[in-house]
C-alpha cells in the first residue's frame, strides 16, 4: 500500500462517480491515499491544515468541502456550475498532483482517529456503556461504513448515553437531502435491532 503521507509517483487513473448528494462528486483513484477504514473530512480550508492536497483543492473557488478516504476524494461544490464543467478540471488536477507525488497529509491521521474513537467509546462511561459503545462501533465499522463510503461519505461514532447514539456524518453525507431518512430508517433500525439498549440515533454533520 502507498505511504499515506505522500502518494506514489506512478500512473494514476481517476473516474468521477455521482453521490446521493447532488452537490458532491466522488473521485475514485486506482491508488490508496489512506489506510482502509480511515477517512478525514474538511468542511473548510482552515480545517485542512494537515492536508496539502485538500488545501490545494480549496484554491478552486467552487470547492466547499473535501473528504478523503482510502482510494477516493469526495468534493462538495458551492457553485451553481454543473459538474459537467467542473469534473474535467478537478480530475486533471488530482491526476497531476498524485502522479507527481504531491503530499497528501503532513501527519498520518490513522493513529489520531483510532485514539479519538477509543476515547469516545470509553471516557468516563460506565463499564456497561463502554461495552454497548464497542458493539455500536463494531456494527458501524462492519455494516454501515462500507455502504456509506460507496456514496462518498463516512459515519463515525461520537458517543453513547442513556440509549442515544450520536454519530458524525462526513463527506457527501453531510449535505445529502436523504441523510436524515437513511439515518432513521436504516442506521437507527439496524442498531436498535442488534443492540437492544439503543433507543435513538442522532447525527452531527447534517447541514441540510
UniProtKB/TrEMBL annotation:
Gene3D superfamilies in alphabetical order: Fe-S cluster assembly (FSCA) (3.30.300.130), Scaffold protein Nfu/NifU, N-terminal domain (3.30.1370.70)
Superkingdom: Bacteria
Domain Scaffold protein Nfu/NifU N-terminal, residue spans: 14-101
Family: Belongs to the NifU family.
Protein name in the entry: NifU family protein
Protein species of origin: Hymenobacter nitidus
